[in-house]
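Let's see one such:

===
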Amino acid sequence: MFRFLILSGYFEWMMYLQVSGKLNQYINVHYIYLVYLTMALSLLLSLVQLKLWVEKSEGKENDHHHHGHEHGLTKRSQKLAAYLLLSLPLIAGTLFPTISLDTTIVEAKGFSFPVSKESVGDPEMNTQYLKPDTSIYYNKDDYDKQMDELLAKYQENDVLQVIDENYLEVMELIYNYPNTFVGKKLSYDGFDYQTTKDQTYNFLFRFGIIHCVADSGVFGLMMRLPENAQVTNNQWLHVEGTIELDYFEPFKRQLPALAVEKIQPIETPKNQYVYRSF
């Protein structure tokens, strides 16, 4: 009975995340087919467990019982431990609310470049800031080949329009090849993040997911705003400007930046995350 409840719970939880629109805060939406596969398997296995439980409750015995013994966990403590481990994802999903990230998480963690050493649950994964870095998923030759193909796609464009679908790949290219993109026009949406270290710096960020929430990060560019611009921390903006290199004193280095020429407040998007396409 417990096996049926746990497996059906998996199915119902994933169905809830899908219907409520919260699933995209856990995984890259391009991998949604894996969720459907898991839902189907959970439903199938839960029905199998239900059938076995009904048969057992009706006094029918399976082949293992006919042989006078049964395999698997026999001690009560072993069964309780196994059920508890299987139930942990459901318990965590129920007790811990799903929330969209904003500047408070940046303020709490700070950010570094190009990749922080801070882990998010998995010691093999790194929280990323500013620059999306997919090189950790490829060997050097395959990564260089992919970057060359993407560079050929964008480097001839004098105007770059960054949208949700290409946000992470364009940002990765700009940080990898800043001199190639200096002088080009760029427009994109994001939320303003202000940090004061000797002086005030403004960044325009989006939270992005490369594969899953374990490798999520905050990505975007430093902005040089017009003198009369009035923006507030965590405000969503559409900006247009020219890519340049600007010195960021806290890092003691130049960063790709956007000299903003046009700025417009916008509504917070329904889905605040962007995802990497592979």
About this structure: The beta strands are 128-130, 159-161, 185-197, 199-209, 217-224, 236-248, 253-265, 273-275. The first helix runs from residue 2 to 20.
